[in-house]
Amino acid sequence: MEIGSANVVIPIFFFALIILSAVFFTLLIRWLLISSSASRNQSAQMEAKLDRIIELLEEDKNR
């Protein structure tokens, strides 16, 4: 019984495809988590700036 080259190449190809898919999804999830964390930081900074503007407007109003 001879093993043809296709009988060896096709399983190796699919195994490599599964490994690459797992790596891709891992990197995608990591990128999404980092992106959402950065977005939260930007929101907090924007909120702090808006609070400062409101304080300044209230001080100006009270004068």
List keywords for this structure.
63 residues, mainly alpha
Question: How would you characterize the overall build of this protein?
Answer:
The protein has one helix and no strands. The longest helix is centred in the middle third of the chain and has 58 residues, at 5-62. The mean pLDDT is 88. The protein has one helix at 5-62. The chain is mainly alpha-helical and 63 residues long.
- Which of globular, elongated, flat, extended, rod-shaped describes the shape? rod-shaped
- Compressed to H and E, one letter per element, the order equals H
Q: What percent of residues are in strands?
A: under 5%
Largest beta-sheet details: none
- What percent of residues adopt helix (DSSP H or I)? over 70%
The total beta strand count reads: 0
Secondary structure tally, helices: 1
Q: Oligomer, anyone?
A: single chain
Provide the low-confidence segments as ranges.
none
**What separation lies between the terminal Cα atoms?**
97 Å
User: Strand pairing plus helix content: what structural class?
Assistant: mainly alpha
Mean pLDDT: 88
> From the alpha-carbon coordinates, what is the Rg to the nearest angstrom?
28 Å
InterPro entries: DUF4083
Protein name: DUF4083 domain-containing protein
Keywords: Membrane, Transmembrane, Transmembrane helix
Organism: Gracilibacillus oryzae
